[in-house]
Amino acid sequence: MAAFAAPAFAQSADPQSDEVAEVVVTGSRIPQANLVTTSPVTQVTSEDIKVAGVTRVEDLVTQLPQAFTSQNSTVSNGASGTATVSLRNLGSDRTLVLIDGRRMGYGSPADTAADLNQIPGQLVDRVEVLTGGASAVYGSDAIAGVVNFIMKKDLEGIQINAQYGMYQHHNDYDGIGNVRAEIERRGLTNPAEFKLPEDDVSDGESRDITISMGVSSPDGKGNILAYAGYRSNNPILQRDRDYSACTIAVPAATAPSTYTCGGSGTSATGQFNDFLGHNYTVSGNTFVPFSTANGAYNFGPANYYQRPDERYTLGAFGHYEINEHAEAFTQLMFNDYQSVAQIAPSGDFFNTSTLNCGNPLMSAQQKAAIECSAADIAADNTKPYYVGRRNVEGGGRQDSLTFESYRAVVGLRGLITDGWNYDIAAQFSKVRLARTYLNEFSIRRLNNALDVVSVGGVATCRSVVNGTDPNCVPYNVFSAGGVTQAALDYLQVPLVNTGTTTQQVVTAAVTGDLGVYNIQSPWAASGVKVAFGAEYRRDYLENTFDITFTSGDGAGQGSAPQNIAGDADVTDVFGEIQVPLADDQPWAYSASIDAAFRHSEYSNLSTDTYKFGADYAPTQDVRLRASFSHAVRAPNVVELFSAQSIGLVGLGGDPCSSTGTATLAQCTATGVPAANYKSAGLNNAADQYNALFGGNPNLTPEEADTFTAGVVFTPSFLPGFNASVDYFDITLDNAVSALDPTTTLDSCYNDNLASACALIHRNPANGSLWIGSGYVEATNINIGGVKTSGVDLNASYGVDLADWGAPSYGSLSLALVGTWVEKLESDDGLGQSSSVVECVGYYGVPCGVPNPEWRHRVRLGWNTPWNVSVAGTWRYYSSVEYGSSLGTSPTRLDHELEEQNYFDLSADWQITDTVSGRVGVNNVFDRDPPLTYSGDTSKNGNTYGQIYDTLGRFMFVSVSASF
């Protein structure tokens, strides 16, 4: 029968037995026999992975309504190369990822969240998602909850799983804004950059094969499972979809009726601007006035919509019971993962600021245009002109990322004495990053290559003449087709970044059943149970950049990152208690309470985390549960020590520009020269401004309180039906975060907050926040906090059609998992009227990815009597509006991203006892994603691939064979 994400119930050891075996469930170290824990757990089975046809585990997990992604395969600009999950949209650093109840290490030197790419999807038996907070049990970084991957074990024989998939899309976008018509219009005058893709495209092919082999010991006391896997996904470019073939711009009209294609001022033909009213581009070998129509660069098509990747996995799981007091176990996992993030070409991003009048590559008309007199030409004087030109000849910037990850767990567990068991384990995780950034320009070489003189009538770099750089080749940006391969070979430099993260964990835990000492409630069938132990963890991070990175010589890199190394360690002691209060009493079918406590000692602070829970079932049909947990999360090594560097952020325009509302006094006070006040040049046509991001060693811990309360229904009058409804409320104070640059500008120019104005650093020459040294400071700080609340709904129903009078037609299953979000509120802590922002039902600046009020998945499965099962899935996301609760602009074309409905179909055929095949189609109706021109840099290709299906219809076929 087609399975689906649903409430997790403990399983019977023997299917024919009424006795329920005690199992260790997510959220507790104490084995128990009832419904999971007092906190809600949603379960995703291996069957769900097959039905969805995913080759990337995160694509399945993040379809759950409680889960969001920070990094996935749709992120190209700013990609870390990892895949991460963020429960409740509280951040991936607050979501702990486990494998068989043991934590995963850092995914990257740039990302402390676990990398889901390390998990072989075909080896996953089920995924348990606990969203009620589990810091007291697993550690302080489980504030939002945990995602626990339970791996397959005890395999015997050989199993092969193979899958092939691809996207198919019909380009006929007819949504709001009519972007197709705009591309066609722009293509009439600039066909090289503005063109529609083919009507029908097939791309993004994926391949996944895993071979597993298992053998049990002759005495039946042990088993070893070994596996090897290969996965690859082909790239998809934004040019291959009509809704992303140009980057949508912020319209100039107050109430636009159509989208317009925007672009970057660093154009394919060049922009030569003194930012004092003179601005040119190249036509032939002459300067003509620059305008958006004739010069803006369409940077969207070159970006990857889906990053290509290739992964090799290898590992083994094993256990052997030496005797009842000692069972040895191990997990060994290796992963080699490669991906490339491609964005638009590099170039001269106004990195050079002068042109020399004696340059022989400039025509007489061009020299006259920049006001070079005869005397200036004779003396080879310079004129203050910034150059913005794309390296269209060299191709897109490619961030090539390779990760090697290792994970090893070894341990012993067993019986101490009657009622008491122990579990001792040591684990080691390591990730090695090798990163090469290609097709980047060197600023130093750009300055040399543009400073050209005539030597015997031959254009020659001045640095060749004076001997400072004899390898220099002139960069002819003054004539169409003037750039040579020799110039590219000189200008383009690779940038290299290597890094390592390691995690070492030693855990010793003891569980005991005090019932053996008759310590139990007089109304309960079982005794009080406890667990206690200690854990030591050390995390180490090292990130090293080459001289091109650290000197800031990369033209398209922003500021220079610096080499960093740091570590953090913590020693924990923890304990749990579970007290059954009643079983099979007239006033209670069952009742219990539980509690957990963890004390953590860091090098410079100590924290306490605790949890209380209770459940009460007045009858077998209804169970009430509630829990409260308090967590204190210390900043991790990346938040503390990551190198500070300049990145890009969307601001929706500069408040001091011609479209802004800030006063002259406000703007000059923050560094805008009076002559540049209200200058159109302060705005970036691509809405990309500089912000300084990075670590802060002065961060303090954050605290969180989580409350959940729910009811579970398993009605005896409706066999096969179960449902749970759970309310959650999470309050996070002193949150570690970066202050949104948009919030900084609003607080400075709208609220006159001096502390916000101090974070604005303008280019002293022209007041710009995107040219030269201008930026907004957005390093990690402790902000006011985050609050979220809502309701989770899980329900499933299975029925044998024989019960409905159709014994020859198999069985049906129906399942629903949904989340209604009541509140998602952030407080920047600045104490202004705009400090508290409500983001439920909103997206974009400052709320980020869409936050639908309601999300759900519904699956209907039919298990036929003919060895075939069929499943249909309906995924739904409610509509969202641009902005936040502080106000939206109803005149925006993208004011509302409409609700989204996606329908998936799959069928499975058990061909023989050992061979099965599966086919499926996701997004059957090839629905286009909703589009936006929001300045939020977390979007890609005019939409949000972290939430919506952006690439069209996905079709897959797979086969499984056992021997």
TrEMBL record:
<comment type="similarity">
    <text>Belongs to the TonB-dependent receptor family.</text>
</comment>
<feature type="domain" description="TonB-dependent receptor-like beta-barrel">
    <location>
        <begin position="453"/>
        <end position="924"/>
    </location>
</feature>
<feature type="domain" description="TonB-dependent receptor plug">
    <location>
        <begin position="37"/>
        <end position="146"/>
    </location>
</feature>
<dbReference type="InterPro" id="IPR036942">
    <property type="entry name" value="Beta-barrel_TonB_sf"/>
</dbReference>
<keyword id="KW-0998">Cell outer membrane</keyword>
<dbReference type="Pfam" id="PF07715">
    <property type="entry name" value="Plug"/>
</dbReference>
<keyword id="KW-0813">Transport</keyword>
<keyword id="KW-0812">Transmembrane</keyword>
<dbReference type="InterPro" id="IPR037066">
    <property type="entry name" value="Plug_dom_sf"/>
</dbReference>
<keyword id="KW-0472">Membrane</keyword>
<dbReference type="Pfam" id="PF00593">
    <property type="entry name" value="TonB_dep_Rec_b-barrel"/>
</dbReference>
<dbReference type="InterPro" id="IPR039426">
    <property type="entry name" value="TonB-dep_rcpt-like"/>
</dbReference>
<dbReference type="InterPro" id="IPR000531">
    <property type="entry name" value="Beta-barrel_TonB"/>
</dbReference>
<keyword id="KW-0798">TonB box</keyword>
<keyword id="KW-1134">Transmembrane beta strand</keyword>
<dbReference type="GO" id="GO:0009279">
    <property type="term" value="C:cell outer membrane"/>
</dbReference>
<protein>
    <submittedName>
        <fullName>TonB-dependent receptor</fullName>
    </submittedName>
</protein>
<dbReference type="InterPro" id="IPR012910">
    <property type="entry name" value="Plug_dom"/>
</dbReference>
<keyword id="KW-0675">Receptor</keyword>
